[in-house]
Amino acid sequence: MARNAKMIKSPDGNKLAIVNPDAAGIDIADTEMQVCVPEDRDGENNRRFGSFTCELTNIVSWLKECHITTVAMEATGIYYLSLFLKLQDAGIEVILVNPLDVKNLSGHKTDSADAEWLMLLHRYGLLKPCYQPGNAARQIRNLTRQRNNLLRSAEKQILYIQKSLELMNIKLSTVISDVTGLSGRRIISAILAGNRVLEYLASLAMSNCKASKEEIALSLEGTWDADLLFTLKQSIEAYDFFMKKITDCDQEIEKFLKLYQAQMDTNEENLVRYKRKKNSRSKNAPVIDIELYAFSVWGVNVFDIPGLKDTAVMQLIGELGHDFTEKFETAEKFSSWCNLVPNNKISGEKLLSSRIMKKKNIVGQIFRTAASPMARDKSEMGYYYRRMRAKSGALQANVATAHKIAKIFYTMVKTKHTYDSSKVGLVEKEITEKKIAKLERALARLRNVS
Question: Does domain 7-123 have CATH number 3.30.420.10?
Fold first, then answer.
């Protein structure tokens, strides 16, 4: 296992010790790989290889011949992944590093210089590794990200459907909240089938629609242009295509979740199901028992945490895996990796800036999305969100609530303890009582002055 930097004493003073003597550095690119090993391992210690599979195999063989046990490489796009997996399969430890952390070398920039610089930093233990889940979790992550791409494509088609209707002055989206829901699809299907009787089209709406049949009929009076009916039909077909692909993706995700579940030794009989509210499942939520699989992976039911639902938890399984708590020592370090804590810049004992860093972290985005509905939630987490919103604004409240959800999530997985709402903070009744007591004390002071 790669070690961190270490200082040693010498007659000339303290010096950095070589803690990873069998280390190499690899500069990653699309078409070539620059690999550097220590000078005492080979006469030509800095070599350039291609990116084809046979070349990647040659890299592994050469590193084995040089007795390399650990390798550092930059997390450059997706180009690193094939070599990363080959090195892992060969039993060589791989350290992925953020390119921004190793770009401080001055002078003329070349691939060979970058590879040597990576090797040098790694030998002295000066590199901070990026977090990477295991192969089983990575497979689920690939599929959940594909599912998100398909979902975004389907949502784009909904906009095209609404655009076609609006251009014909059919105001269906103003009287029905979801044009792709049961009522909207029945009406649109009848329109595409050639039916133009407004009263009949309005009667196809479900009884639970808030708008009256007369109002729906009025909204359906339009121009019925042939070109726009054609674009409407194509958008509907494209939407159905993407939704079918999402269903196929869900089935494939469940296959990999079952394989991942088989690797865990959790007893599913200990699962205490989360009490769902009626009709609380999202329209686009996967039709998979994510609650069971998440319990198998982490040994605790994270659905008890307000805001975490099927889609979010499924993504977290793929993005984090089962052993992420071993890579992050504390909940604060995990939250910092999620980019949910301020990036405090202090100089001269003065706080210069405390803004959140402008970088994307998918796990952090998942927690932020989970925090958004807390604005209307009546749980302790909802009270916390609204308190932060009154104090600092909506954006800061979202980040603060996401930070709290992330810390609770980490702690539950780490300690295997169930969710305790009392740890979130004071409930609204207690906060109101404290405010009243504070105002009473202020009033008493004014009376004493008078």
Answer: yes
pTM (2 d.p.)? 0.85
- Per-residue pLDDT tens for 184-243? 999 999 999 999 999 999 999 998 888 899 999 999 998 999 999 999 999 999 999 999
Using one digit for the tens of pLDDT, what is the confidence trace for 263-312?
A: 888 887 888 888 877 666 778 889 899 999 999 999 999 999 999 999 99
DSSP letters of 44-106? Answer: S-EEEEESSHHHHHHHHHHHHHTT--EEEEE--TTTTHHHHHHHHHTT-EEEEE-GGGG----
Greatest pairwise CA separation for the chain in angstroms: 96
- To which residue do tokens 């997390």 refer? 75
Q: Annotate 245-295 with DSSP letters as a single string.
A: HHHHHHHHHHHHHHHHHHH----GGG-----PPTT-S-TTS-SS-HHHHHH
Cα 432 to Cα 181: distance, rounded to the nearest angstrom? 42
Helix (H) or strand (E) holding 27: strand 23-28
- Please state, in angstroms and rounded to a whole number, the distance separating the CA atoms of residues 356 and 402: 13
E strands in 133-227:
none
User: CB of 291 within 8 A of CB of 274?
Assistant: yes
Q: What angle do CA 200, 204, 206 make, to 5 degrees?
A: 145
Judge contact between 304 and 419, C-beta under 8 A: yes
